[in-house]
Amino acid sequence: MDAVQKITSLCKRRGFVFQSSEIYGGWEAAYDFGPLGAEMLRNIRNLWWKEFVHKQPNIVGLDSAIISHPRVWEASGHVESFADAMVEDIKNNKRYRADHIIGEYFEKKNGEEFNADGMSLEELDILIAENNILSPDGNKLSKARKFNSLVEVSIGTLEDAKATAYLRGETCQPIFYNYALVRDSMRMKIPFGIAQIGKAFRNEIKVGPFFFRTREFEQMEMELYVHPSDAENQMAKLKSWAIDWLVSLGIPEDKLRLRDQDFKERAHYNKIATDVEYRFPFGWKEFQGLHYRSDWDLSRHAEFSGTNLDYTDPVTGEKYVPHVVEYSIGLNRLMLVLLFDAYVEEEERVVLKLHPDIAPYRYAVFPLLKNKPELVDKARLIYNTLVTKGYNVAWDDRGNIGKRYYSQDEIGTPYCITVDFQTLEDETVTIRDRDTASQRRLRIDELG
């Protein structure tokens, strides 16, 4: 069983992630996050918001609508330019991203990464023809053509009067069109930022592995509005900040790298684009982007809406359209990074060595025997005390203690607390460390 299969199996078995609509046969590239997955996502969201909003005096939050006015996506360039190059298996009509098909071919052939992202349709066709690249099923491929990734929806109460709109393809556009409203209502001065966590939707051609690339996903984004002369300085700071925060979650720095995109790879709005990549078992893959978007977004929304989005410096009186430095990270991809990074197989157990602030449960409480009311009552009292202190706590009285420990190891619970007969005598409990499996006695009033 390879690494992806192991993580997939654990996630289903332990209630982290389920295939969406599984009882109907499943739905491609759609996943539901189970009880433990929901807790883990909530912990990541809270940590990110604390770091990038609550700790920052010049950054505020936003929670915007998923469906915006259709003109938003025309102004942003997505209706015209938000497209990937697609090729089709001419026998079974399966569709693939052309750059992925080519990249996988050359990686298998030469053992090295090959980046075809940003190539023209003609360049892709030539590479496929000259190297006789076939589909994964061994069939010939069609000519490359553009495939727009925006997801269309129909809005309206009358069937013959419905308007075409789009599910947001990225969470940042509402941050741009709300820029002046936030600036004025919160009395913000340049430089300042607006952050948001929310769902986005893309009609991806290629999906997987597991929930790495899906058509519905969640982003954590921050747009920093800056003076044009300060943009590259802010970009450099953002790179360091991004890596430092990821390392604080327990991700080893040697499994992270920054990779600057080539000109052809960059989205139409980016002057500088840097990917943050993680070394997965299936290769280096991007899960975060840091971008210098210049004044593209505000200038376009000003043009298409007829609204003046200039900023006037309150000290110098200088007027200018702010430039934007962007931090964008996929919440779901970050969760997958953390799961892969934490997964450890030891002689007798599987352990998820998650950071305590990310693990679904901080503690698990066990009565040594579930048929002894005095032990159960004492354990319940400790459980309730820890919950009152704000911790998420697991209760487990099934089977023997050893099996309970291994069960909690597999879901990443950092500390297990066992209430035994000595607890009744001296108000101490056994606390076991997940990572080392070491145990020690601790007074109840020292917990938490």
UniProtKB/TrEMBL annotation:
Keywords: Aminoacyl-tRNA synthetase, ATP-binding, Ligase, Nucleotide-binding, Protein biosynthesis. It comes from candidate division WWE3 bacterium. It comes from the Bacteria. CDD domains: GlyRS_anticodon. This is Glycine--tRNA ligase. SUPFAM superfamilies: Class II aaRS ABD-related (SSF52954), Class II aaRS and biotin synthetases (SSF55681). One of its GO terms (biological process) is glycyl-tRNA aminoacylation. Residues 2-367 form the Aminoacyl-transfer RNA synthetases class-II family profile domain. GO terms for molecular function: ATP binding; glycine-tRNA ligase activity. NCBIfam families: PRK04173.1. The keyword Nucleotide-binding applies. The keyword ATP-binding applies. GO terms for cellular component: cytoplasm. Its EC number is 6.1.1.14. It holds the Pfam family tRNA-synt_2b. InterPro entries: aa-tRNA-synt_IIb, aa-tRNA-synth_II, aa-tRNA-synth_II/BPL/LPL, Anticodon-bd, Anticodon-bd_dom_sf, Gly-tRNA_synthase/POLG2. Gene3D superfamilies: 3.30.40.230, Anticodon-binding domain, Bira Bifunctional Protein, Domain 2.
